[in-house]
Every structure is written in C-alpha cells, then in structure tokens.
Automatic annotation (TrEMBL):
Protein name as annotated: Methyltransferase FkbM domain-containing protein
Lineage, uppermost ranks: Bacteria, Pseudomonadati, Pseudomonadota, Alphaproteobacteria, Rhodobacterales
Signal peptide: none
Superkingdom per UniProt: Bacteria
Location of the Methyltransferase FkbM domain: 76-217
Alphabetical list of Gene3D superfamilies matching this protein: Vaccinia Virus protein VP39 (3.40.50.150)
Length: 236
C-alpha cells in the first residue's frame, strides 16, 4: 500500500511500494507511476521475475537502472550483496542515490554510463519527465520536451563483464539490447532477465535475441517469463 508520509518540515515525503521507500519527486513520480507504486504494480512483470529467480549470492549487472526500483528491491528484499546498476540519464542519478539512502541500501555500485563496443561518449537528451529521457532527440514536445543535453560516457562491455564477472543480468534498455547483447560474453551468466522491445526491432530482432541466448547455453524459462519480460536460465 502507498504511504505518502507527511514528515516534519524540511524532510521529504515518501511513497511506499513493496515495503520500499521512494522520495516523492514529481519530476520522477508522475500520476501514473504513483498509481502503480500504490498498487505494488510498478515494473510488475520484471519484479516478479527478479524476486523468484535472483539469489543473494549473485553478482548482478542491471542495465537501465531507471528510478532505482529494481536495484533497491534486489538489495533489500533479496539481500543481494553485489549489484552494479548502470543508468545513462545523468538527471536520474541523484534520485537513485536518494532512494538507496532512504532504504539503507548497501552493496549497489551506481554507474552513470552506457555500455558499448568501445570507449567513447554519446549525447543524452534529458526530458521534463526524467524517466523518459533517451538518446533520441526527435520526440518533439513529448514527455516534457528536451530540457538538457548531457554527454554520457560509454564503457566497453567486454571490459565491464571481465571485471565484474556477473552471474545474473537484468536488462531494460528500450530496444538497445538487440545491439548490445551480441557484444557480451554470456558464458559466465546463469540467468538473464530481459525486457524485450519488439516495437523497436520487430520479429527478426526478437528471434535474434532467442538464438543468441540459446547459442550461449541459456534456455528460455517460461515460468518466470510474462509478455515482453523474458527469462533465460542455464541448466534448468
């Protein structure tokens, strides 16, 4: 249930969802997100997959940290000790940190970066609705329009995976998975939870993701999959 707590003057209000606290910043929590948080339904399919499949001893890479919901859920509900959360949007980083602080989260390393083939930089377009920001600059006035242009570092995915040695990947990157997944060394992963975006890359892109996972020894796991959120496991 939602609790918009009225605190003494000078302290923030919070919305509670799944026992977690989220500072009530209207730039992040619009009316739709507020309703979903209220119903414990924010990122429902991904949350259920994560809660049923991630283990406390996993080393998790999360791509697309968003508002810090999933990293906080894993850290607090599942007691995952090592999470690396990557978020491209610089405007979201202070909010994610505030969520982690409000919930006493430890063990999460937050990275304001994208992963790619080689090191570099990209332009990121921050919109009035922070969560809708992206590398696309041609959305007109949708989502509050572009309010800032930021330069975001790109880190080589091969180096990141070699250093962290993840056992689980949680990924929601708005269609970029089609191009990023083939660059990854998936051999050390026991689990992938992925939100597909067929509206971006179509049937061919969806089929390519499934072929890639199968080639890496990761098999579609229907019990923890629902709609566009798909789970792949090794040796189940």
């Amino acid at each position: 249930m939602m609790d918009v707590s009225v605190k003494p003057e000078g302290t923030p209000k919070f919305i509670r969802s799944r026992g977690l606290k989220f500072p009530y910043d209207v730039r992040v929590i619009n009316s739709k997100r507020r309703t979903l948080l209220h119903k414990d339904a924010y990122e429902l399919k991904e949350s259920e997959a994560v809660l049923s499949q991630i283990k406390a001893d996993d080393r998790v890479i999360e791509l697309g940290a968003g508002m810090g919901y999933m990293s906080t859920l894993m850290a607090k509900r599942l007691k995952v000790a090592e999470i690396h959360a990557f978020e491209a949007n610089p405007a979201m980083i202070p909010y994610i940190r505030s969520v982690h602080e409000a919930n006493g989260v430890t063990g999460v390393t937050l990275h304001n970066a994208l992963l790619g083939d080689t090191a570099g930089e990209v332009t990121f377009y921050v919109r009035g609705d922070f969560v809708a920001s992206s590398m696309e600059d041609n959305l007109g006035d949708r989502h509050g329009g572009v309010i800032a242009r930021e330069t975001v570092p790109v880190r080589p995915v091969s180096e990141v995976f070699a250093k962290i040695k993840p056992t689980a990947l949680v990924c929601d990157i708005e269609g970029a998975e089609q191009h990023l997944l083939p660059l990854m060394d998936l051999s050390g992963l026991r689990l992938v939870i992925l939100e597909l975006h067929p509206q971006v890359f179509g049937q061919a892109g969806t089929e390519a993701v499934f072929r890639l996972m199968s080639k890496a020894g990761l098999t579609y796991f229907p019990k923890a999959s629902h709609g566009k959120v798909v789970t792949f496991k090794r040796g189940w």
